[in-house]
Amino acid sequence: MITEKYPQGHARCVKIATIVGARPQFIKCAPLSKELRRANEEVLIHTGQHYDYEMSRVFFEELDIPEPEYNLGIGSGSHGAQTGKALAATEEVLIKEEPDLVLVYGDTNSTLAGALAAAKLNIRVAHVEAGLRSYDRTMPEEVNRVLTDHLSDLLFTPTKQAVSNLGKEGVRKGVHRVGDVMVDSLSKAREAAKTPSRVLCALGLEPRSYLAMTMHRPQNTDDPGRLRAIIKSLSKIDQKIIFPAHPRTKKALVSLDMLDGMPANVTVIDPLGYVDMVRLMMGARVVITDSGGIQKEAFLLGVRCITMRETTEWPETLAGGMNRLVGADPAKIMLEASRPFQGRRGRTRPFGSPGASKRIADVIEKFQ
Length: 368
Fold this sequence. Notes:
α1 packs across α15 (356-366) and α7 (181-192) packs across α12. Helix content is 42%, strand content 15%. The chain has a seven-stranded parallel β-sheet with strand order 3-2-1-4-5-6-7, with helices on both faces. It is built from 15 helices and 13 strands. It has two domains: 7-180 and 352-366, Rossmann fold; 190-338, 3-Layer(aba) Sandwich (Rossmann fold). The protein is of the alpha/beta class.
């Protein structure tokens, strides 16, 4: 039963423990946390899965996210070790705080750890970005998504396809199609991105004169042959490529003696804050990535995307040729990066309209 409380004149207050730990979750958390705190009590728990300033702290500062009540300091490690440490540490906090609801985002190890800790303590779970499927179980994120969805009591889906995916698995109770909270975050960042960027000025970039690239998936960074093939393909692209490198990617490049020998057209920089990353994508002719979130952001910004994966959890982005799956095939990467855009820029709204954060908060307030 939801705890009955009466702070600040509200008839009822739900105590929510929100679990975050990685860059995409900070972005999604920013607008939703503001909505939740209008009428509820939120305890923000940062697992520390991402801990570098560029991958964590800068987002809290830039997006005005409330200071976490807990930082668990989990750090990096293998998937099993990281998930296990996060599970144990999160459980301790939940026992102490006794929330009515645990809210998790997306598909990281922190997501699964939070959902598991809550379920074992008989605390109800809400999953934001539920129902996504790539149907590729070699991706740890896919395993995290499926398990989290089947542990959840409230499943907030961003798209019609996500609802369908859950239905195929027999998950129908507690499913709410609310749209994508990233639309809320991106709407605000897009306005902020209209102001001049010191990063883009420092790089001397003109709109549509460059490609933007990100890469962090283990399937690309931990396979030396695959990583070499991807980097080699970049040298064949006759345009400047700006590459904000994830710490794990930079580490892999250093271990293979590839960082100092990057193609002349590739500029490797440190990870960017959210607004500067949006600026970089808005000005790019093409985005190259293996990130689920970047695929979706590029689509929402109307920028063509090349995805270095064989599958995607965001099939909506493939509409009209806005996103192409190329794996690590050098010929496909080069072809897609070099050819003029011949598809159509999406005019539909598969990810819904702004306001998903409020719609989620409204459901939670009524949840019994």
